[in-house]
Amino acid sequence: MTLAFDDGEAVGLRVTGARHAGEVFEKVRMVDAELVRCDLSGCDFSEAVWHRVKVIDCRCTGIDLSQTALRSVEFADCKLDDANLRMARLREVRFSGSVLTAAEFIASHLENVAFPDCDLRAANLSQVRCTDVDLRDARLDGIQGIESLAGATIGVDQLFGLAHGLARALGLTIAVAEDEQ
């Protein structure tokens, strides 16, 4: 089965193994859908609305979800590296076991969003608004926009790796004591 929209809408859809790399689905509405092992790399879903959608074991490298409204959405074991989520509205979204390296969340609103066992290395979170965002157990090396993470939760074991970025965001200078030089 392929991903098909009737008048820009898909309700109650289950698609397995579809290949749609690079296709354009902007401004579509997807409700009560499940996408399993699909190739959605480079697809344009900008300004779309996803409600109660599950995306499982899908390749979504470079997917464009900019200005998209995602509500009650789950991404499980997906590859979302270089994903564009600029100015998206994510509410009750869970990314689990997914790769989001270099994903862009710039100016997005994240509410009740979790990233268990995800790789967010080099992700850009500049100007995000966070409400109940759970980053525990996520790999956060080199994330950008750390100053925008007020409202997010991290684990104690992640704090040391973020210390330099947090200090920089607060305008702190880290200096070595003279007797340690």
Features:
181 residues; mainly beta; Pectate Lyase C-like; nine-stranded parallel β-sheet; 1 helix; 29% strand
Question: How would you characterize this protein structure?
Answer:
This protein has about 180 residues and is mostly beta strands. It has a single domain (about 10-180), classed as Pectate Lyase C-like. It is built from 1 helix and 9 strands, in the order E-E-E-E-E-E-E-E-E-H. The chain has one helix at about 155-170, and strands spanning about 10, 15, 30-35, 50-55, 70-75, 90-95, 110-115, 130-135, 150-155. Strands 1, 2, 3, 4, 5, 6, 7, 8 and 9 form a 9-stranded parallel β-sheet that branches. The chain starts with 8 loop residues before the first strand and ends in a 12-residue tail after the last helix.
Assign the CATH topology.
Answer: Pectate Lyase C-like
Work out the oligomeric state of the chains in this entry. single chain
Whole-number count of domains: 1
Helical proportion? under 10%
Reported for the largest beta sheet, the result is:
9 strands, parallel
Radius of gyration: 18 Å
What is the CATH architecture annotation?
3 Solenoid
* Unreliable residue stretches: none
The count of strands amounts to 9
Shape, principal axes of CA atoms: elongated
Instruction: Give me the CATH superfamily.
Output: E3 ubiquitin-protein ligase SopA
What is the residue-averaged pLDDT?
Answer: 94
Tally of separate helices: 1
Q: Would you state the CATH class?
A: Mainly Beta
End-to-end separation: 65 Å
Tell me the β content. 25-35%
Category from helices, strands and their pairing: mainly beta
Order of helices and strands: EEEEEEEEEH
